[in-house]
Amino acid sequence: MRVDGRPLRTLWPTPARDALQVIDQRLLPHRLQVEHLADVAAVQRAIRDMWVRGAPLIGATAAYGIALQANVDVRDGALRDAAARLKAARPTAVNLAWALERMLARLLPLPSRQRREAAWAEAGSIAEEDVAVNVAIGRHGLPLLQAVAARKCGAPVNVLTHCNAGWLATVDWGTATAPIYHAHAAGVPLHVWVDETRPRNQGASLTAWELGHEGVPHTVIADNAGGHLMQHGLVDLVIVGCDRVSASGDVCNKIGTYLKALAARDNGIPFYVAMPTSTLDRALRDGLAEIPIEERSAREVTHIAGRTAAGEVVEVQLVPDGSAAANPAFDVTPARLVTGLITEHGVVAAREDALRRLGASA
Ligand code: MRU
User: Fold this and answer.
1) Atom nearest to 240 CA in ligand 1
2) Which of 48, 96, 299, 304 to pair with 128, CA 20 to 30 A apart?
3) Å from CA of 279 to ligand 1 middle
4) DSSP letter at 318?
5) What pLDDT band is residue 16 in, cutting at 50, 70 and 90?
6) How far apart are the C-alpha atoms of 115 and 160, rounded to whole Å?
7) What is the span of the domain harbouring residue 114?
């Protein structure tokens, strides 16, 4: 998508293939800074400390981490060890494990002399496929927005989204934002309610930034405002992303998603989840019991960073000295609250039989 009118992706390898370049998302929206990641340790740190984040993007980043490993040592043990270290960087989004398993499955059967070239090619394929998948999600989600627009006779379609499932969470286009960007390009009048998404504020810092650069009208709201807006007819539909979806259609996504799903159900508002099939964990049946929920540092809750009027970015403390804080980073929305999953193959029900058929056609 575009930044200041110029196309940009979230990651790209250097021409010499000696580093991966990524946007340091911790600094947005105040500074756009590109970082070079030159080895597995740097990639692991960038994923763990959320320079890059979002389920599809951490998968693609980790794939390039294996390619960087292949620059220095392509033996089975070295590749497996690199994959294990990268996989441990964040536990919840299944795309990370998915991409690493795909890299190992591609590389380990090859003779050593072919592995380096194949690693860069496979990481490149994972990145390019992510873009194509998101474009397809956008195409399949577009009619949902067009249908609301037709009903509203030219009044803007109000979409609520949570966290950042935008292009910054993927290689390009985003998952939840792909239908929004497609609709905007098609001339559908739109307005997006952007949940700020405490504690890391991916909505306020990232989604608002990218929507702004694409010229999509949007309003940032406190996380607690969504239910009120829904009660007053100000939300037409909800579209969120996901980090892991169980075989039965339970959706794990950024903390707070479940509360939006409950409010949407209570108000008869469609609740859609944009889901690349790389985020479907077919091995899991019960999302609530089985998906590992990342517990992040309490400091993300007790402190907040922002820009002062003088242009300096500073961090301040929000809570009294000594107050404990807990920081579960994801929650699980039961399948029964999900209106549909917007996938690259079409919109499907969040049900085991529908997801099994999706597997068959994937
Ligand atoms: O902790 P993050 O920022 O990596 O969490 C991201 C989310 O929860 C997104 O909503 C989800 O990954 C979908 S990304 C297309």
Assistant:
1) 10
2) 48
3) 11
4) -
5) very high
6) 44
7) 2-129
What domain count does the chain have? 2
**Residue at which a domain ends, from 73, 98, 129:** 129
Separation of alpha carbons 157 and 328, rounded Å? 32
Mean pLDDT in residue range 172-194: 98
Q: What radius of gyration do the chain's Cα atoms show? A: 20
Instruction: Give the burial string for 13-31 (b: 16+ CB within 10 Å, else e).
Output: beeebebbebbbbbebbee
Q: Which member of 243, 250, 281, 331 is catalytic?
A: 243
Strand order in the sheet with 251-254: 280-281, 244-246, 251-254, 330-333
Same domain for 102 and 175: no
Is residue 243 annotated as part of the catalytic site, yes or no? yes
Please state, in angstroms and rounded to a whole number, the distance separating the CA atoms of residues 122 and 110: 13
pLDDT at 362: 44
- What's 180's domain CATH number? 3.40.50.10470
Beta strands across the sheet bearing 20-23: 11-13, 20-23, 34-37
